[in-house]
Every structure is written in structure tokens, then in C-alpha cells.
Protein 1
Amino acid sequence: MYKLQVNNKVLFSLFFVSVALVLFSSSVIVFPNQAIAAGKFTIDPKINLKKLNNPQKLKVVAYSTGQNKTKYLTGNDLNSNTATVSFQFNQKNDLVTAVHRDEYFVCAYDLNPQTNEMKS
């Protein structure tokens, strides 16, 4: 009798786990990422400014889905220990369609504010 109760508990646990996995996987398939469903996605890099020697101007470049975008940060954007900039990309273009596992890169360059040359 005890063995039968243990088997019932195991079967119920397996059933519950399998139902939970099915529900979870269907929600991931139906709603993988709200930003992708809208046709755009956003990259919000957080830049650590502590290691830079009083930056006056930063050039931030982001690349994804075959597109590159550039933004400049100056003044109040650089007054704290970190800076954040937002880049929005189309999920789909003539070259590719982005999915949630795609890679991207973001680089920040410390520039001389007068000459726009990169400091080394």
C-alpha cells in the first residue's frame, strides 16, 4: 500500500511538472519579447565612468542587425559614476531578422571635446 502511495505521488509530481513546462513554453513561444512584437528592440548600455579621467565627451556606437548607430554624451550626461544611452533598432531589415538570442556590440570612446579625437 505504501509503495502505491509513493508511486501516485511521483506520477502526480511528474504530471504537474510536465503541465507547468508546457504552459511555460507556450507562453515563451506566444510572447517571446514584447519589443520584438512591436517591430523594434532597444539596447540600453550602462557605461562605467569611474575608470575614465574626467570625460568631457563620449562617442557611443552600437551595432546590431547589420545597422550601426552613434550617439554623443556630454555635460550632465557624464556627471555621475555611470551613463546610460538608449539605442533603438528595427527587428527586421533587408539583411536579417533579429531574434532574442542575437548578438550586438556597444563601444564608448572618450573624445577630446575640442578636436573630437579619441584620447588614448
Protein 2
Amino acid sequence: MVGLLRSAPSELPHLTTQFLDFEDDSELTARSLTTAVLQFAGASWLKKEGNYADMLHTTEPELIFQKGGRVMIPLMKAEEAMNKRYNASRRAITSKVPATRACIGEGPMKRGYYVREDRTLESAREAEGPEVRVSHSFLKSIRFSRDVSLFLSIGKPDSSTADANIILPEEVDNIDPDIAHRYIIDWGTEAEVEALVEPADTFPLFSKETAYWLVGLTGTLGLSLCQWMLHNGARYIVLTSRNPKIEPDWLKTMASQQAIIKVTSCDITIMQDLQKTYEDICSTMPPIRGVFQGSMVLNDIGLPSMGLEHLQTVLRPKVEGSINLDKLFQDNSLDFFIFFSSVTSLVGTLYNYYKPSLFILFGNKRSLT
């Protein structure tokens, strides 16, 4: 219903709608409902008479009635962290981060050094062993052998100093006294520092030891995504659609880059067909650790002329197909499960595209993690 009310005005400009969402049944009273209806009807009449521009009032397409009588207006909010990572691939983006709590590192540049957010260090939070709160460190690493370079740091274990008291004298004796460094970093500041934001694909995002399944993505978008994944560490990729048509030259190019690409035909709206394809992938490829669901059917038709059959044709790949894929991975063995929606789910378009784009089965997957 939300999809219908959001998309209908874009197809029928003369139509004005308002959606009322009561989060708590106790707020659904005759007074609250009557007030909303009268305000909506009054604003519509004033617009028709041409007197609405002078009113300090807006007719919102959606209102949310929260417990306690608070009325909220749904608005789009920018995701600042994700936008910064995306734009960091095109220009230098900085962000203020707490020096004592964030995972940050440093790197050389033409005129000095820069501080950066380092997401690769996040895994250190889960590492076993004592945690050390570093107070000072060298700016440059010390080369101990041909293949080993380390940063000399001074810190205090968060848990106990007993191990440090035993190990430190022995380790200090092994340091060459002739080593001289002019600059030392003080990590003890409590202030925030300006850190350079790194793009999401700065480091490999995928594993060469696992497989990734691209469903309904055998067109230009899917092939482009496939190449990007290979560039970021992936090796085994499965491409599936009802009628995959991929140029042999493209497959040869991918094979020359040590990629293992498997192309299969499958209708994901039929569970038996999907199950068979899944079993074939499992028997011929490494374990599947990521799924991209991008299936869709194009069938342009306006809301006034749309019949149930037209609607179901577009709905089935995104809705039934996504439900079937979800059933395959109930064991929660995936690193990610990405559903391809569309910006049309925010700005509105033909109803038969808008509604499936709003299908949010991913909320169920997220609740399992």
C-alpha cells in the first residue's frame, strides 16, 4: 500500500494522497484520525481555491503517529560515512576521529605524512592476547631482516603489566643502539584528529577461496560488477539468469585473468529450479559466501491500465525470487546478501517497478546476524 501511495502521484499528477502510519494501536483514536482527515481535506480544498500558498501548513504524503501522540514526518537522511567513502575515490576526504578509540594509521605523502582511517585494523580488536594502549611510536618502521619491518612502540597493557615486565628487558636488548629516528608520534592525545577517509575498495574486499553468486545480473551491470569484484580479490563467480547471453570473448578475457566464471540458466521464482542450480554450484565451486540478487522483469505499463497479471510479472523475480534465495541460506553462512533495489523506491515511478523495489526481505536477513 505504501508503494501504491508513493508512486500514484507520479503517474496521476491530479491525485493527492496521504498515508497515516500508527506505530501504536492506542494512538488510533477517533480524534487523531478525524483531525488528520479534516486537515488533509481542508488543505486540498484551499489548494483548489488557490488560497493555500498563504497558509503556514504543508500536506505531507506520509505521517507517522508515535506512542505518546508525537507525529513524525519521514524524510531522507544522508549516510555521511558511506558518502565519504564513496567520494574518497575521487578526491581527498577527511573526517574527525577520536585518536584514542578509532583504528587509525599513518602513511607517507609528498610533503610529510598523513593520518588515515584504517579499517584493516578492525580485526585486531578480535585478536587474542593482551591489549596494549600505545602512547608513543616511531614514524618510520625499523627493518629487522630482509622480510620483516616493524614499528617500535611504547605502550601499557590494559590488562596486566606482568607479561611486559618479563618480556620487555629481553626485547630491548635486541635493538641495535645505532638506530636513530628523529620523529616520534604521540598517540596519547584525547582530541579528535583529521584522518583521511579511504575508499571502500582500498584493500581487497573478497576472498579467492570462496564463490560469489550474481543472480539476474548477466547484463552490462552484472559484468561490470564482476570485473570490479575480480579486481578486488574475487576469483570464483557464478552468473545466473533465466536466459544468460554473455559474449565468449568476455569470458576468455576473464579466464586470462585467472578468474573462474560459471554461467548458468535458472528461474529463481521456481524453487525446484533454484535448488538444483544451487546444488550444482556447491558441487563444482568453493563455498558460496556472498549473493547479489538483481533479478527483474521490465514491463512498462501505467497504473490505470495495469492488470493483476502485469503486476505479478514484475513482482515475482524480486519478491518470490528473493524469498526462495532466502530459504537456501537459512544457515546464515553468508558474508553478505545484497538486494538490488532502485532509486525509484525513493522518488517514485511506475507502480509495478516501485512496489518490488520496496520489498525489504533484507530486514529478515539482517536480524539473523
Protein 3
Amino acid sequence: MQVTVYDDDVMKAWRILKRKLTNENVLQEIKDRRYYQKPSAKKREKRKEAVKNEYRRQIKQAQTTGIPYKDYDPFKQTFKSKKKKR
């Protein structure tokens, strides 16, 4: 990977390099390979990340519809019942 420095602006070149590394996931790959991780632990982390992403997606969906997240039911697209269960 190569970045050219124009007009002695090293900081701009540094930002461009960081952006390129981030876009190609090089930094994440280095962090992942720093230590050995068992395949089961990788699966667990991946599942955990998927749950977190789904939670964020649901919160964003609730905000766009104007419904508070606690009352949001993504399957019904309406408010949950406020009645007390006996």
C-alpha cells in the first residue's frame, strides 16, 4: 500500500493511509491475528456481534417510526399491549 505526500503535508497523507487501511480491514486483521482464538470462540464473538447489530438496527427502526424502543415490536409494527397480566 502506498500513499504519496504532497506539499509536505504529512498529516493529510497519514489520514489517507488510515482510511485505506480501515477500508481494507487491515488493522482489524492485525488485531485478530495477534493472539490465537479457538474456532468456537470466533463463532461466539460473531454471534455476539450479530445480536448487537440487530439490536442497533431495531433501535434505529423504532426511532424512524417514532415509537419508543421499549414499546416497539418489529413484527407487529405497533405498540405492545399496556394491559396488566393476571
